[in-house]
Amino acid sequence: MSMFPLKVRGAQTARRGKVLVGPVDLDLRGAGTTVVMGPNGSGKTTLLRLLHGAARLTAGQIEWACDEVQARRDQAFVFQRPVMLRRSVLENLMYPLRMRGVARPAALVAAERWAVRVGLDAMLSRRATHLSGGEQQKLALARAMITKPQLLFLDEPTAALDGRATREVEAVLRAARDGGTHLILSTHDLGQARRLADEVLFLLHGSVREHASAQEFFNGPECPQARAFLRGDIVE
Amino acid sequence: MGDLWAGLSEAFRLLVTLDSDLVEITLRSLQVTLSALLIGSAIALPLASFLAVRRFRWRRGVIAILNALMGLPPVVVGLVVYVILSRSGPLGVLGLLFTPTAMIIAQVIIIVPLIASIAHQSLRDLWSEYHDLLISMNVTQGQKMRTLLWDARRALLTASLAGFGRAIGEVGAIMIVGGNIDHATRVLTTAIALETGKGDFALALGLGIILVGLAIAVNLCIHWLGRTEQEGRW
Q1: Given pLDDT bands bounded at 50, 70 and 90, which one contains residue B234?
Q2: Is the peptide bond before A5 cis (omega within 30 degrees of 0)?
Q3: Is residue B127 part of a domain?
Q4: pTM as predicted
Q5: Which chain B positions have a beta carbon within 8 Å of A86's beta carbon?
Q6: For helices B100-136 and B20-53, what crossing angle results, to 10°?
Q7: A112-144 pLDDT, tens per residue?
Q8: pLDDT for the residue B233
Q9: Domain of residue B176, residue span
Q10: Does the pLDDT at position B230 exceed 80?
């Protein structure tokens, strides 16, 4: 059962009385790539965490088309700084499946298939923490994708990567999107946003200032701060 | 200095001749300590993992108490266990007083807080590293605890070794609940205390040297089996 459309109504998260993000109103249909943009401190990561359920919803509602248990199972998150389990590459890939009760032989087959897709098949027995930053991010991506999520959150997944690793990660992301996974990706990289976005959320001071298709946003956003952001001006 | 040399030569003699009494009390020492270690680890490690993962109202208080109990006086533990297991005590009907089982119970009480506190520190650090990932993967509390225990297994081995060190050298509690009965509850530490009391320093030192050698050998064995020194490679 599809978890979309996702309806967000007045969602907000606060800590010690200070609102970090929100109120946010949003409808996501569940296709393509939504890129979340905004200056540093605008709340991109917190918004992703809020939608994912990792940040506490202090007001408003987040409604999935399915029940919440299934919605939680059908989404995954890739962090800016990949978190590697202190295990081999293979064990890292198998971990999410094993936690869902998939038998070891089936998990092994899936892990090997994903290792090939992200170019880590020659490193299966290596310790994940010994991989380079780019390799770790590809592993984190494969580990997130191995459960075939309907929705994948990516928090600046290529921020610390070189050009080649970025290209490889983007190729995996395109394949995931083409395979039907909805991507919600935060990025600072305008070029990456242009390459990947189907729609853009522009965030400032914790609230969504613009939600438009990529074409509309990059051709001329309505919000003056978004226009300044696209020009490369400092936006406060 | 003479006593030391005499002790060394006595230790050598006891070892070379495989003195039957020495073998018996050494094996009993190992039996009691390793049993206590296994039971203590089985209680302390999941407890440490639970405290690392779960947030509940009295969590900080529990951790503070656990840390404070690391310094639990063994004689007091021995006394409490004695009262509980004595004929008029609540568990007197079990007839466990002055048996190796009573000694194991006392040692478990002594080492559980020690192992749990050291293990908790390692698991807390690993949990702060894994927190976001495991939350995002929507794994259950039990799975989180098992993941931490498995991935920190080498650090946990060190915690258990600390418990072993405490247990193998323990004398106060097991003297009270075991009674130091020959061929029944006598272990290396209580034998050393007895021989010292009798003024046979050479034999006491000999037993002491064997006890130290045993503790080092078991530690090295566990380090080697667990490849603890490879932890840094992660």
Answers
A1: very low
A2: yes
A3: yes
A4: 0.86
A5: 126, 151-152, 234
A6: 30
A7: 999 999 989 999 999 999 999 889 999 999 999
A8: 47
A9: 26-186
A10: no
Provide the pLDDT for residue A28.
86
- The separation between CA B159 and the C-alpha centre of its own chain, rounded to angstroms, equals 10
Judge whether A128 and A89 are in contact, CB under 8 Å.
Answer: yes
DSSP A109-167: HHHHHHHHHTT-GGGTTSBGGGS-HHHHHHHHHHHHHTT--SEEEEESTTTT--HHHHH
Q: Catalogue all structural domains in chain A, each as residue range(s) with its CATH number.
A: 6-84+131-231 (3.40.50.300)
Q: Find all residues with CB under 8 Å of B142, minimum gap 6, and list them.
A: none
Q: Which of A86, A96, A127 is the closest to B137 by Cβ?
A: A96
- Report the pLDDT averaged over residues B40-65: 94
Question: What letter does residue A236 receive in the DSSP assignment?
Answer: -
| Structural domain count, chain B | 1
CATH code of the domain covering residue B106: 1.10.3720.10
Mean pLDDT on A51-69:
89
Which residue on chain B is closest to A131 by alpha carbon?
B234
Q: What is the mean pLDDT of residues A87-109?
A: 96
Residues from chain A that touch B132, judged by Cβ atoms under 8 A, are 54, 77, 79, 83
Chain B within 8 Å of A54 (Cβ-Cβ)?
yes
Q: Is the distance from CB of B105 to CB of B97 less than 8 angstroms? A: no
